[in-house]
Amino acid sequence: MNIASRLQSMAAPGQILISYETFAIVQDQIDCAEFGEIEVKGIAYPVAALRVLDPREASGPAPRTLHERQPHFRMDFDLSAMSENDRMAAAASLRKALSLLE
């Protein structure tokens, strides 16, 4: 509850911030975007925060970002910010990761 209170105090008016732990529970019900890591008083490590998206914001065109976090796995990319070379390098990295997983 301490982390939730700290995130609430850091949110802009009308904005909702949640921790990654909360997101892991509700990720199938709400859309979120990465907000970044936040230093929280009383917590020894940075807290990964996410911004809850307005349903109108989430129902737009197909998403051009992907943020996945699992134990021992993290993937973040924004297609709209990537050049063609960036996309090719990312695809090569994903192929390499898939071959290691098989």
Give a quick precis of the structure:
This protein has helices spanning 2-10, 20-26, 55-58, 84-101; strands at residues 17-19, 32-38, 47-52, 65-70, 73-78.
Alpha carbon gap, first and last residue: 40 Å
Q: Nearest-angstrom radius of gyration?
A: 16 Å
Tally of separate domains: 2
Order of helices and strands: HEHEEHEEH
Spatial shape: globular
Give the biggest beta sheet.
3 strands, antiparallel
Structure write-up:
- The strands form two sheets. Strands 1-3-2 form a three-stranded antiparallel beta sheet.
- The mean pLDDT is 83.
- The protein is α+β, with helices and mostly antiparallel strands and 102 residues long.
- It is globular and about 40 Å long.
- It has two domains: 59 residues, no CATH class; 42 residues, no CATH class.
- The longest helix has 18 residues.
What labels would you give this structure?
single chain, 102 residues, alpha+beta, 2 domains, 3-stranded antiparallel sheet, 5 strands, globular
